[in-house]
Automatic annotation (TrEMBL):
Record membrane topology: Multi-pass membrane protein
UniProt name for this protein: Xanthine permease
Keyword Transmembrane: yes
The organism's taxonomic lineage, starting at the top: Bacteria, Bacillati, Bacillota, Bacilli, Bacillales
Organism of this sequence: Paenibacillus forsythiae
Keyword Transport: yes
Predominant cellular place of this UniProt entry's protein: membrane
Parts of the chain that traverse the membrane: 12-35, 41-59, 66-89, 95-115, 122-143, 155-174, 181-201, 221-254, 304-323, 335-354, 366-385, 397-417
InterPro entries cross-referenced by the UniProt entry: NCS2, UacT-like, Xan_ur_permease
Family: Belongs to the nucleobase:cation symporter-2 (NCS2) (TC 2.A.40) family.
Amino acid sequence: MGETRRMRVFSLGLQHVLAMYAGAILVPLIVGRALNLTAEQLAYLVSIDLLTCGIATLLQARKGKYLGIGLPAVLGSSFVAVTPMIAIGSQYGVTAIYGSIIAAGIFIVLCAVFFSKIVKLFPPVVIGTVVTIIGLALIPTGIRNMAGGVGSKEFGSLQNLALSFGVLIFILLLNRFSRGFIRSLSVLIGILAGTIAAAFMGKVNFSAVQDASWFHLPKLFYFGVPSFEIGPIITMIIVGTVVIIESTGVFFALSKICEQPINEKDLARGYRAEGLAFILGGIVNAFPYNTFAQNVGLVQLSKVKTTNVVVAAGGILIFLGLIPKIAAFATIIPASVLGGATVVMFGMVVSSGIKMLQAVDFSKQSNLLIVACSVSLGLGVTAVPDLFAQLPQSIRIIVSDGIITGSLAAILLNVIFNLSSKQQDVPVQQAQEIHS
């Protein structure tokens, strides 16, 4: 009987891994390719990301004295950090990325109690606007990949367009005609199908898989000793704040599904776990991490609300992260295939943000202005990154990213318009409806 139960927990944990796997590997692939990393470096980035996702998930799963929300949450690399990491790496070098991530992690750990006390500053109008901006700012990256990726000699070729739109259509068909588990894996299945089709077209190089080893241990500071620059550090601290805002909504969603109320102390423990995941990501040269929203739907779908399942998922991720051969398979995915899948995923981020905004009272002019100005600034800076080109570099790196600019606008405008009110237009706890 015990063996049957263990197998059930393992299979449910594997389901969580499969549901978040596409999102977990997309961030290292997008960032690594934008920074022109070698195939070997890219394989390391993917494998260390999987391993760190597993460790971060374990940190969050158990409710300790100081760490862990104690809910069935799965952590993965944050989409919020994609464009800031690319900008920092391009201007200051890769080592500055990891110095800023470590600094941001320390900031989150030290300020966890403070964040838990100001959670009223993150009502649905802020969370929904921030998530919408994240999706809108990332879509251009997906579109460029659909054409073959920046710098591709075959940019916009018929083959690239056929692959990317083929993957997009295949994912849509799976969502239209499949149910349950298959539907939840539609993006991953689409990527696999697209890569197989690309292989028949001669667009896949398997040398990275052949050259990869079967086992490795994580290396501290793989890309070099981290450097600490004030501009990147401030940028990543803002990224960390946005991650906290996003995770707050997920925590309340899980709290509602699991019928397990959470308070300020629980939130502080959850924030500390995410801050520690940031620090770990910086040390092993991985990524900032946040609670993955797509796994919340899986908890609701499976009706399994114990943390044992996500502990199993964390163990599976750690195992996968120790095998570079598996990580190397992710690096052979053509950019056009990746683009077809990311357009869906980034579009779903936008949809999630719009769903969150349904809880907002738009009869109030202040809420309309918060969304209007924040989205306009976020999307505007993404479309015209040279808007702040004349500012000093340390300031420019902060405001030249659409996600950061739009998120800061949403937070500040909410303080200006709504903080003085005795009661927020919608209680923060209603953020639990975000992903349900």
